[in-house]
Amino acid sequence: MKKAKTKTNAKAQASAKAQANTKAHAKKKTKAARSPKITLRLNGKKAAVAAPPMKRLLDTLREDLGLTGTKEGCGEGECGACTVLVDGAAVNSCLVASCQVAGCDVQTVEGMARGNAKVAARLHRLQRAFLEHGAAQCGICTPGMLMAALALPKRATLDEIRAGLAGNLCRCTGYMKIYDAVAQFLDGERR
Amino acid sequence: MIAAAGIDVLQPRHLKDALIMLRVAADEGRPLVPLAGGTDLFVTLNAGQKPAARYLDLWRLDKLRGVEALGRRRLAFGGLATFTDSIESKAVHKRLPILVDAARQVGGVQIQNRGTLAGNIENGSPAADGVPVLMAADARVVLRSLDDERAVPLAEYYTGYRKTVRRPDELIVRIEVDVPEGGQRFEKVGTRAAQAISKVVMAAVGHRVAFGSVAPIIVRAHKLEAYLAAGGRDIGEAQRLVAEDVTPIDDVRSTAEYRRRVVANLVAAWVPSLDKRTATR
Amino acid sequence: MSKKKRREDGAARLRTVGHNVARAEGVEKVTGTARYIDDLVFDDMLYGATVRSTIPAGRIVAVERDPAFDWSGFTWVDHHDIAAPGRNVVAMIAEDQPFLAVDRVRHQAEPIALLAHADRARLAEGLAHVRVRYEAEPATLDFETASIVLKEIGIRRGDVDAVFARPGVRVIEGTYRTGAQEQLYIECNGVIAQPGAAEPDDGGITVHGSMQCPYYVVRALCTVTGLPREKVRVVQTTTGGGFGGKEEYPSVLAGHAVLLARKSGRAVKMVYERHEDLVATTKRHPSIVHHRTALAADGSILAIDVDLRLDGGAYVTLSPVVLSRAAIHATGPYRAEAVRIRGRVMMTNTPPNGAFRGFGAPQSQFAAEAHMDRIAGELGLDPIALRKQNLFRTGDITATGQTLKDSVAAHEVLERALERHARMVRPHNKKKRAHNNGDGHDGDGHDGDRRLRGTGVAMFFHGSGFTGGGEVKLASRAGLALTADGVRLLVSSTEIGQGTRTMHAQIVAETLGIPYDRVETADPDTARVPDSGPTVASRTCMVVGRILQRAAEKLRAELGDYDDEKSFRKRARWLLAERGTVEVIEEYQKPGDIVWSDETYEGDAYGAYAWGCNVADVEIDPVTYQARCTQFTAAIDIGKAIHPILAEGQIEGGTLQGIGWALYEDVVMREGKMQNASLTNYIIPTTLDTPPINVEIVENPFAGGPFGAKGVGECPIDGPAAAIVNAIRAATGKRLDAIPATPERIMKALADETSR
């Protein structure tokens, strides 16, 4: 009986100490999170942006980083117009907290062309394929669609292309020419 | 429009720190909401739900990532294991292939890359797609707090609509599955072929079968299972029993009658496959 | 010389038209540099929000701003702020719809007041501190039992009753229903209003926005502000889809933003989030159509009697025109000795319905084509043979008494569609088959062949341009400005994804004989371009393109002789030096032989018709009752494909919207409010829901269109719903007379013993 009590007391004491430590510990962590400077690798270059940690990555890109290429279509993760690549994986940036991409590699549509995007010759091969095949009509879904397409496995079959793009809604094209453009691009990648 | 400016986020690098923070928050009565991939939370925030004052970002807790195969039949999913992790895991393909099927039908790749199994479980949606699979496979949810760890069978995890046994100072660190013997089957009946909320979900491992979207929580069809375990194979009886195990409703997506009928049809298609030698999918 | 050879020779001469030139507005779309309205930010800009009704009908008792809330920084606008010479009327056809409700509301989500603030989060808080108190009144929510008629029209030819009374005549009846459909442009509605037109403080107003019809917005703004035309400037920004959903609605939104901008003296941005856009903006009119058809025993249609009702919602808006098109197309592309069509738009206390691609024709032709299959079934005739027997040919007369003089390709599109579809589904064609079976992941591994399969056909047509005297009333104007190296288009037609700027530039370049890239195009700014009419009604190529072609012809004549680009530039510079500026603007010219009466609804309804045929393969899973389209063929006669890839794109996109309407898209209403107002619950087809769509472009030229072109934008959406429903009947033996053909409805039909 006695032994058990001692154990319990000791445990309680240790717990109280731990609690005091944790409170101080937690406060330190809280302070660190309030200063909202987020550093990341953005389209191949180092970048830093001050943004509230829970600000959506979509909004940080569009408002604080001046990259309006990524679009909002629904705010629900259904349309994929906000798709960007984080460490190579396609994600809906309307559902990502900005603080979670600290230290990550983020790619947006603005990173695709080399240099001056207005010059057709500097376009990414996938962008050129989209142009050739008429894969963009109104263009609002296009940036997200391009990003999702870049994340496809290089040997994707038509069915895998369709599955990989199932998270990107297009209302204009009926998808057919998007498949053509992506298939041509992947074909070129394999050579 | 999320009023992000006023929200604090704690970003621990180690699991222990995260657990300390949750303990302190619980002791102080200051809610601290865990945030993983954000695929459920941000949908509600974008829709105008008032955000919590503080969130605990779990995304840096690398120890919680990934899927491990332990022994011949055991799978261990980390607390941050995503649907994509399951799809890409050879072990999952081999031992619990219906989880791959389910994972492939959760949203599009964008959701699969960020959505976690733990989040799917904890969010408690009756329409969750991964949970019926795990429930049919007798999964255990491993909850850890600062000084304790416990494993709760998934079948006992829910206490009511979107209510779980997780205490505020606990995190799901692991989901363990000792995959039972038997054929596996997964059927999701959604509103369309991809990116669909399910109207009915059925997941079966052997004669264990769980249903989603037909009750306030994901349920195992205990009456039906008992009948099948005892050797019963009459389809009419099976359908009668499963009708007692599920309580579908009318909602904006579908009707109770449709759900009842489809559950009956799915059972009718499934029962005859139980005694086939090869594992069906 | 054979027709084919003549066509080939003609085609060989064309250097730009008929070729897939690089899109004028293409690069910016694939690089993300195109600026949509939400990408624009102006200095000192405020954000605007709308206080909306939360009941379907009733009197407004009070509109209260919480006195305990800090309203500093807010701008408030309600109907009191619309003062003479401005009028609180959204000017369309009738003057029944206010910009802001005065003393009563007639539908859920009706705009009552407006708020603006520089901070969006604060704005949302302010909105939550406004309370409206009502005295609710009984609401009419079901248009089938509604009694108030917003518009009625009648079309009559011959004596329908006499035909029905003839002995030996077979009479087949059927009732068909279609649901509302949301346009679901991926870019929501949005505008930015700024004080100042030509100068920031000239008392005028400028609006940038996502829209199809800049001049509709001008007219609406002149009405609500009382400003003269010169003081109102409207600029279309890159528009992320319209499909009719941005035909008339932007006028309402622009009016709201302008009221806030004028009161605050600041730029005001109003961009809807998806939920608000779904709940508050226009949808396709739901319909109920009753057919009564008299046939001879051999299947010849003798008389067609149609009663058609549309749900207009609470205000008239464009419903009379939707009704008009629905009624004119209600027979489908078939001849009959006698025709009677009664069309009515009913008033309900729901958000007003409006333009959506097809504009009434999809609804009435769904009924007509589903009915043809019912007729075939009941008379024991082959559905295709029945159609062939009754399809329009050149020389036939339509319901409105129009003799179809030329460019009638109904039989040709039917042949082409059937032939192409058969090629696509040939079993040995392995490559295509792999595409066909793109199943996605619906677990069909275990019950491989439990599915029921069937094929359905639909025939349809679509008149191009505004009905009857509509184009004359529009009096559209468009033209060119000469530059040192080429020309600049002066036209208010909008590019909304269909490639307007490219197509117009091709027509002009071809006519002038200059390279395509010498034609400058821009998104319309009403300060710079004339009113070319709205970008709707499949008129942008056939009607406006033709005006541009005439302007180019005139300019060419004025330039004198040149035979290559170099000599063109020489002539251009000479002419510019002579005159300073050289602009040629042409106005719409009615083709001489078109005769139409608005009073009797008789005459030449449209200058030309596009013709279409769809063949659809559908699979139904008897376990889940889900129907899926697995292969789809569309043959459409568009006269001439100015840009083949763009034309195909219109057909593919319009087809998929029709498939979505047939199978997936459902607006769930309760108490007059949309319940599934999110993309999670209002579903459009994803890649995995989309069948291979095989397109056959048929070119049956129309002399009145540029290079033979007729319209292409809308025709493709008129057919898919009936083709799919007919395929479902072929697969299951059960007839579905309503869309969407949801699994719940299919389940009911399969269980219904009496249904055939």
Give a verbal description of the structure:
The complex is a heterotrimer of chains A (191), B (281) and C (756). Helix content of chain A is 42%, strand content 12%. Chain A is an alpha+beta fold and 191 residues long. In chain A, helix 3 packs antiparallel against helix 6. The N terminus of chain A is likely disordered. By secondary structure, chain B is an alpha+beta fold. In chain B, strand 2, helix 2 and strand 3 form a beta-alpha-beta unit. In chain B, helix 9 packs antiparallel against helix 10 and helix 10 crosses helix 11. Chain B is globular. Chain C is α+β, with helices and mostly antiparallel strands and 756 residues long. Chain C is built from 19 helices and 28 strands. In chain C, strand 17 and strand 18 form a beta hairpin. In chain C, helix 5 crosses helix 6, helix 9 packs parallel to helix 18 and helix 14 packs parallel to helix 15. Classes of the chains: A alpha+beta (191), B alpha+beta (281), C alpha+beta (756).
The CATH topology of the domain at 409-461 and 607-751 in chain C is what?
Aldehyde Oxidoreductase, domain 4
Domain count of chain A: the total is 1
- Distance from N terminus to C terminus of chain C (CA atoms, Å) equals 51 Å
Major sheet details of chain A: 5 strands, mixed
Strand content of chain C: 15-25%
Query: Which fold name fills CATH's third level, the topology of chain A?
Result: Ubiquitin-like (UB roll)
The CATH class name of the domain at 409-461 and 607-751 in chain C reads Alpha Beta
Structural class of chain C: alpha+beta
Sequence of strands across the biggest β-sheet of chain A: 2-1-5-3-4
Q: Biggest interface: chains and residue counts?
A: A-C, 57 and 60 residues
Could you give the topology of this structure?
The complex is a heterotrimer of chains A (191), B (281) and C (756).
Chain A: H1 2-34, E1 37-42, E2 45-50, H2 57-64, E3 83-86, E4 89-92, E5 105-107, H3 125-133, H4 142-150, H5 158-164, H6 176-190
Parallel strand pairs in A: 1-5
Antiparallel strand pairs in A: 1-2, 3-4, 3-5
Helix pairs in contact in A: 3-6
Chain B: E1 8-10, H1 15-28, E2 33-35, H2 41-46, E3 54-57, E4 67-70, E5 74-78, H3 83-88, H4 90-95, H5 97-104, H6 109-114, H7 117-123, H8 130-136, E6 140-145, E7 148-153, E8 158-160, E9 163-164, E10 171-178, E11 184-190, E12 198-205, E13 208-212, E14 219-220, H9 222-229, H10 235-245, H11 256-270
Parallel strand pairs in B: 1-3, 2-3
Antiparallel strand pairs in B: 4-5, 5-10, 6-7, 6-10, 8-9, 11-12, 12-13, 13-14
Chain C: H1 3-13, H2 26-31, E1 46-52, E2 58-65, E3 75-77, E4 104-105, E5 111-117, H3 120-128, E6 130-136, E7 149-157, H4 160-165, E8 170-178, E9 190-195, E10 205-209, H5 214-225, E11 232-236, H6 249-264, E12 268-271, H7 274-280, E13 287-295, E14 301-313, H8 319-328, E15 338-347, H9 361-379, H10 383-390, H11 410-424, H12 430-436, E16 452-463, H13 470-474, E17 477-482, E18 487-490, H14 500-512, E19 519-520, H15 540-559, H16 565-579, E20 583-587, E21 596-597, E22 602-603, E23 609-620, E24 627-637, H17 644-663, E25 669-670, E26 673-674, E27 693-698, H18 720-732, E28 738-739, H19 743-751
Parallel strand pairs in C: 1-12, 8-28, 10-11, 14-15, 18-19, 24-27
Antiparallel strand pairs in C: 1-5, 2-4, 2-6, 3-5, 7-15, 8-13, 9-10, 9-12, 13-14, 16-23, 17-18, 17-20, 21-22, 23-24, 25-26
Helix pairs in contact in C: 5-6, 8-9, 9-18, 14-15, 17-18
